[in-house]
Amino acid sequence: MCTPMLGMLFNFAGAMAQAQGQKHAAASKAAEYEYQAKIDDNNTKVALWKAQDAKARGAKEEAAHRVKVAALKGRQRSALAASGVEVGSGSALDILADTAALGELDALTIRSNAEREAYEHKVDASNLTANAGMKRMGAKNAIIAGNIGAKTSLLSGAGSVASKWYDYSYG
């Protein structure tokens, strides 16, 4: 007579342990998702810093290039003038204008490349932010799934105990 009661007790204890295990597993999975989201948050900050750095480096490189072009134009003007060429007209003026135009094109290319690099880092930051949000949602869903699993285990265990109780009492 004691054996069926002991079986029901163990069945109920097993259901409780299974429910508790599901809750702990869900909490662990949620903590993992939250940790990964925090890593993505940190990587987002790094990507934004990289974007700022790319723009700053591009601006410095552009400014340095403009100084080099101005110096080149000065050397060209001096060389032309030393050769006795009129620097304000004709071929000499064309040479200086070409130097200025090509220098400007190079400066704008430097700026464009820096802007493109910064944009890529900003896109990375945006993607990381979205990933962090998805991971936080996964953490919430893990908790919900764990709670549902725990309740299912308890209900299943209660049903099994009730069935055994019925068989014991009326069987």
Which structural traits does this protein have?
mainly alpha, 95% helix, 171 residues
Describe the structure concisely for a colleague.
The protein is 95% helix and 0% strand. It has two helices and no strands.
Overview of the structural elements:
The chain is built from 2 helices and no strands. It has 171 residues and is mainly α. It has helices spanning 2-82, 90-170.
List the helices and strands and how they pair.
Blueprint: H1 2-82, H2 90-170
Helix pairs in contact: 1-2
Profile the largest sheet: none
In which range does the helix fraction lie?
Answer: over 70%
What's the count of strands? Answer: 0
Radius of gyration: 37 Å
Q: What spatial form do the alpha-carbon principal axes imply?
A: rod-shaped
Q: Averaging pLDDT over every residue, what do you get?
A: 91
Order of helices and strands: HH
Helix tally equals 2
SS strand fraction: under 5%
Structural class: mainly alpha
N-to-C CA distance: 12 Å
Unreliable segments (pLDDT under 50, ≥5 consecutive)?
Answer: none
